[in-house]
Amino acid sequence: AVEAYVSTAASPVTDACAVKAIELIAKYLPVAVKEPKNSEAREQMAYAQFLAGMAFNNASLGYVHAMAHQLGGFYDLPHGVCNALLLPHVERFNQRAAKERLDEVGAILGANNADLAGLEVIDAITKLAGIVGIPKTLKELGVKEEDFDVLADNALKDVCGFTNPVQANKDEIIAIFRAAFEPAA
Predict the structure, then answer these.
(1) What kind of fold does domain 2-181 have according to CATH?
(2) For residue 90, what pLDDT band results from cuts at 50, 70 and 90?
(3) What mean pLDDT is reported for the chain?
(4) DSSP state, 166?
(5) Would you say residue 98 has pLDDT above 80?
(6) Count of CB atoms situated within 10 Å of the CB of 143
(7) 167 phi and psi angles, rounded to 5 deg
(8) Cα→Cα distances 91→28, 74, 129, 152, Å
């Protein structure tokens, strides 16, 4: 949903779907994870997934998915975990071109989840990932630094990256992988 919202192909229709998905995710994802039998939370997450899919099927995605595809294929890692782990790092990179939209995402997250209220968007995304148990680093997932070169080459060829709000070069993609690899100091 966040990638579709900051995509260069976003439109008012995709924005509406993405915003509603982000609202629902902020509110219901922690509940669905904490209470797996909570049918309302699970239903709302299914709806959020549907809306996010409608948004990104029409606005496309960005480097989060372009990079996650490489991790999943290279290491057989779960797609959602890779996306969640990479999201704050890619959006930090994207802030130079999409700051206003990302600030809106932060406000939506905070308005729909008290634990995220008042946080900057990158901190809110990171905190939400922590709340639901997403690993903090690529290193924890068994990713190897020596593979960054080939992972970056392939990510730059992935069609999802074409609508990222900032077009990156190989060194920038490697830097994003590196930022996601080591724990924050």
Answers:
(1) Dehydroquinate synthase-like, alpha domain (1.20.1090)
(2) very high
(3) 97
(4) S
(5) yes
(6) 22
(7) -80, 130
(8) 22, 23, 14, 17
Q: What is the pLDDT of residues 16-57, one digit of tens each?
A: 999 999 999 999 999 999 999 999 999 999 999 999 999 999
pLDDT bracket for residue 185 (50, 70, 90): low
Look up residue 118 and give its DSSP letter. T
Q: Residue 27 carries which side chain, given as an amino acid letter?
A: K
> Could you tell me the sign of the dihedral formed by the alpha carbons of 33, 34, 38, 40, in that order?
negative
- Return the closest-CA partner of residue 24 out of 123, 98, 97, 128: 128
Burial class (CB in 10 A: 0-12, 13-18, 19+), 94: buried
**CA-wise closest residue to 124 among 46, 34, 15, 30:** 30
Asked if 140 and 129 touch (Cβ cutoff 8 Å), the reply is no
Annotate 25-92 with DSSP letters as a single string: HHHHHHHHHH-TT-HHHHHHHHHHHHHHHHHHHHH---HHHHHHHHHHHHH---HHHHHHHHHHHHHH
Tokens 């779907």 correspond to: 17
- The residue to which tokens 């069609």 are assigned: 159
Residue count (the chain)? 185
Determine the Cα–Cα distance for residues 127 and 150; give it in Å rounded to an integer: 30
